[in-house]
Design brief:
Order of helices and strands: HHHHHHHHHHHHHHH
CATH superfamily of the largest domain: Leucine-rich Repeat Variant
Distance between the termini: 42 Å
CATH class of the largest domain: Mainly Alpha
Largest sheet: none
Structural class: mainly alpha
Protein name: 3-methyladenine DNA glycosylase AlkD
CATH topology of the largest domain: Leucine-rich Repeat Variant
Helix content: 55-70%
CATH architecture of the largest domain: Alpha Horseshoe
Strand content: under 5%
Number of helices: 15
Length: about 240
């Protein structure tokens, strides 16, 4: 690692595949299943190693499309790292999100790429109402990431997410409810005003007759009212 890759897109693609094959770790692949990382095709390369490779590669939209279509865990995550957010269309996002079948590829793609596109807000709202588990999760991962990374967004953007969080708190699927909870907590840690509103949402959820909603609310309330969070927000 550390050598900038040069050549045509096709040559760089071939070099990346060669590097991934060299870094392949069968033991790592076995260990991933423990964390519910279950891709059909996988080299067993770590995220830090992929980040180094992405840095050596630079941004390349065409290369990203080629890597994604290869279908390996590592090529798909790497695609999300090297793609240019400005060139990503909603059509591409819809095509890629349909390929999500475990949490890691969902979260990596949303954090590395989708959250940085001009379409993130709209897709967060759209995907939050979808039936597919990892498409819906993507909507709430985007909300969580926007709350952390989009420093310029107005509070109203995140206030729009609260009704969606309450609506989908009924979804008991593990990877959905955890993402709903994540979004609520991250929004509530953004500033004092959003913290107050997130606490109100959390309190309502704790009174729900649905176990998933109660868990989301109780867990979020614990963090949002914690001394550490309150101290940071009131600095």
């Amino acid at each position: 690692m550390g050598t900038v890759l040069v050549g045509t897109t096709e040559e760089i693609f071939d070099e990346i595949i060669t590097k991934l094959e060299e870094l392949s770790d069968p033991e790592a692949i076995e260990g991933m299943a423990t964390f519910w990382i279950t891709p059909e095709k996988c080299y067993g390369v770590s995220i830090p190693e992929l980040r180094h490779l992405a840095k050596d590669t630079g941004k390349d939209h065409k290369l990203a499309l080629m890597l994604w279509d290869t279908g390996y865990r590592e090529t798909m995550i790497l695609a999300s790292m090297v793609d240019d957010p400005k060139q990503v269309t909603e059509k591409q996002m819809e095509a890629w999100v349909r390929d999500f079948d475990y949490w890691e590829i969902c979260d990596q793609c949303c954090m590395n790429l989708f959250q940085k596109t001009p379409h993130s807000y709209r897709k967060a709202i759209e995907w939050s109402s979808r039936k597919e588990e990892f498409v819906k999760r993507s909507g709430f991962v985007l909300m969580a990431r926007m709350a952390v990374a989009d420093k310029k967004a107005d509070d109203s953007v995140f206030e729009d997410f609260f009704p969606l969080i309450e609506r989908e708190s009924k979804d008991a699927r593990n990877f959905v409810k955890k993402a709903v909870n994540w979004a609520l907590r991250q929004i509530g840690k953004r500033n004092i005003e959003l913290n107050k509103k997130a606490i109100e949402v959390s309190q309502r959820l704790t009174g729900s007759n649905l176990a998933s909603a109660r868990w989301i609310g109780t867990d979020a309330l614990k963090e949002l009212t914690s001394e550490a969070v309150q101290k940071r927000l009131h600095k």
